[in-house]
């Protein structure tokens, strides 16, 4: 059996003071669990680690970026619910 190359990465940018980020965190955790074999998931606190936010031009929280082979394929600069995010991920898998 061959291993699956995780070429799709989800980066979720959040802040401690953001209420929508707090609401989105369980969704990101569930997505991470459900797509563990196919998707790299990273959560970045933009207040603590501003460099990745600058790299991807993220200026609001929550923001979610999907990368394929290191290139941005989707950038969502708002709260996104689980069904919408699941649909988006499945599109790129």
Automatic annotation (TrEMBL):
Q: What is this protein called?
A: Thioredoxin family protein
**Superkingdom of origin organism:** Bacteria
* GO MF term list: protein-disulfide reductase activity
Q: Per the record, what is one GO cellular component?
A: cytoplasm
Database matches in Gene3D superfamilies: Glutaredoxin (3.40.30.10)
Q: Alphabetically list the UniProt keywords.
A: Plasmid, Redox-active center
InterPro entries with a match to the protein in the record? Thioredoxin-like_sf (IPR036249), Thioredoxin_domain (IPR013766)
Report domain Thioredoxin positions.
1-93
Q: Identify its protein family.
A: Belongs to the thioredoxin family.
Q: Which residues form the signal peptide?
A: none
Q: Give the species.
A: Leuconostoc carnosum
């Amino acid at each position: 059996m061959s291993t699956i190359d995780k070429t799709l990465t989800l980066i979720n940018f959040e802040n401690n003071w953001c209420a929508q980020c707090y609401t989105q965190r369980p969704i990101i955790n569930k997505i991470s669990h459900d797509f563990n074999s196919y998707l790299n998931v990273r959560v970045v606190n933009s207040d603590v680690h501003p460099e990745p936010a600058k790299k991807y031009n993220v200026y609001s929280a929550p923001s979610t970026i999907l990368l394929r082979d290191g290139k941005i394929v989707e950038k969502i600069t708002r709260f996104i619910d689980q069904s919408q995010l699941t649909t988006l991920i499945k599109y790129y898998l």
